[in-house]
Amino acid sequence: MSEPIIKIEHVSKEYRLGTIGGGTLKGDLQSLIARMRGQEDPNSLLGSAPVTGANDRFLALDDVSFDVYPGEAVGVIGRNGAGKSTLLKLLSRVTAPSKGRISFDGRIASMLEVGTGFHPELTGRENVYMNGAILGMTKAEIDRKFDQIVEFAEMEKFIDTPVKRYSSGMYVKLAFSVAAHLDSEIMIMDEVLAVGDAKFQKKCLGKMGDESTKAGRTILYVSHNMNTVRQLCTRCVVLSHGRLIFDGDVEKAISIYLDEAKNPLTLDHDFTAQPSPSHVTGLVKMMGTELLELTSPQISMRDTLKFRLTWKTDLTDREFFIRVLFVTDTEAPCGMAMSPALSYTPGAINQTDFELDTSTLAPGEYHPQIVFCEMDSHGQQTLHDAVPSALTFEILYDEQKLNHLVWNKWWGPIYHHPVKVLNQETLA
Predict the structure, then answer these.
(1) Comparing 143 with 132, which gets the higher pLDDT?
(2) What angle (nearest 5°) sits at the alpha carbon of residue 164, between those of residues 163 and 170?
(3) What pLDDT, in 10s, does the model give residues 249-265?
(4) Averaged pLDDT for residues 108-112
(5) Residue 169 DSSP class
(6) In contact, 87 and 221? CB cutoff 8 Å
(7) Which fold does the domain 59-261 belong to in CATH?
(8) Is the pLDDT of residue 342 over 60?
(9) What is the rounded average pLDDT for all residues in the chain?
(10) Residue 210 predicted with pLDDT over 90
């Protein structure tokens, strides 16, 4: 067997909780002297809790070890807060481990957030050169690949437009294309495909798959979309609370992740303490959902589902929509529904009631994701917030409504209506 291209040996990453530092040397010295004298910190915010010291620490990663070999496509999966993005930041040398050692052999192309390294005032063309230089490409290399980058990103018409006018989807297309065309041995991707449209996601997965199987490129891919993990990865590691709990077969890893990540069926969900994912703006905050007119999170087939969404934004004069992505309890996608533009009061807590048509869903559990977005005149969407499993409910089997057909769950989550007889005649 060849030597590992990435070696992660007993790596831990510790963060200190609370506000640290006064912003200036003078402020830091004032705070230090006050703490030594047992006095109140003169630089602390009113009403803030003091940082007490050594015990206020958080292990984002705890003694993680595994190797990655050339040409492997390794998925990194786990719940929010499991340590996935921290691991990729360590591998990309954005930050350093508190303990342990990471070594790798080769150039890394990393894409941890949408538009990383892009300057909003520069055009797409200028950002390609700047971002390529940040990733380690020479000007001659960018010149040679520029047309390929722009064509892959489908940005020919907008390449000389300042990127501040780009939607989040346009950002990710161009940023991914630059990283994908870097002649690197290792590509690190953190959920970037969540922003692109379905066609571009398929294109990206095809590109990454080709780079892994044909070019021998090593890929580390973080995602909550298990279908893309299945499609791309040949191996998976599962993180939980900063620790590595599994390393091996993709299907086994997904099974472990789903068992751990599965949310219980409840009437309401609270998102106030849940951080926004990296691929959204965060300018809208969804605070919670509640199923209406139900005493349990279960409905009969063909019933409609009503729910209330609590949310807040300081933006004014914008047209917001929600997108409900139907997924099963195994995270298999089975449809999408879009709302009309929402009425709201900026700066206030808004509650909006919705009704979902679930008549085409088969019996089983569903854990839809809700995405808060706005859309420009060209149909480009900007994502402001996204919450997986924002609703959880079960559709109960109803023999009468299924026309005496016993439903087999392996047939899928979509219920097709009975075949209609339009005409019948007897031929002599």
Answers:
(1) 143
(2) 50
(3) 999 998 888 777 666 78
(4) 75
(5) H
(6) no
(7) Rossmann fold (3.40.50)
(8) yes
(9) 83
(10) no
Which amino acid is present at 31? S
The string over 57-88, giving b where at least 16 C-beta atoms fall within 10 Å of a residue's C-beta and e elsewhere, is eebbbbebebebebbbbbbbbbbebbbbbbbb
- Greatest CA separation found in the chain? 107
For the chain, which residues make up each domain, given as ranges? 59-261, 268-411
User: Residue written as tokens 């063909």?
Assistant: 302
Measured in whole angstroms, the distance separating CA 384 from the mean position of its chain's CA atoms is: 12
* CATH number of the domain located at residue range(s) 268-411 in this protein: 2.70.50.60
pTM of the model: 0.62
- Provide the Cα torsion 254, 256, 260, 262; round to 10°: 50
Q: Is 79 helix (H, G, I), strand (E, B) or coil?
A: coil
**8 Å CB contact between 257 and 111:** no
List C-alpha distances in Å: 105 to 19, 95, 99, 184, 381.
37, 18, 20, 10, 39
**Strand residues in 301-339 grouped as ranges (E):** 304-313, 320-327, 333-338
Q: How confident is the model at residue 46 (pLDDT cuts 50, 70, 90)?
A: very low
Taking only the tens place, the pLDDT of each residue in 296-334 is: 999 988 788 999 999 999 999 899 999 999 988 877 788
Q: How far is CA 345 from CA 89, 320, 339, 355, 423, in A?
A: 38, 12, 18, 21, 55
User: Would the CATH topology of 59-261 be identical to that of 268-411?
Assistant: no
Instruction: Write the Ramachandran bin of 427: left for phi over 0, alpha for psi from -120 to 50, otherwise beta.
Output: beta
Lowest mean pLDDT among 70-79, 130-139, 405-414: 405-414
| β-strand partners of 236 | 75, 248
Alpha carbon distance 328, 389 (integer Å): 10
Q: For strand 298-300 and strand 393-396, is the pairing parallel, antiparallel, or unpaired? A: parallel
Give the pLDDT score at 106.
81
* Residues 320 and 372: beta-carbon distance below 8 Å: yes
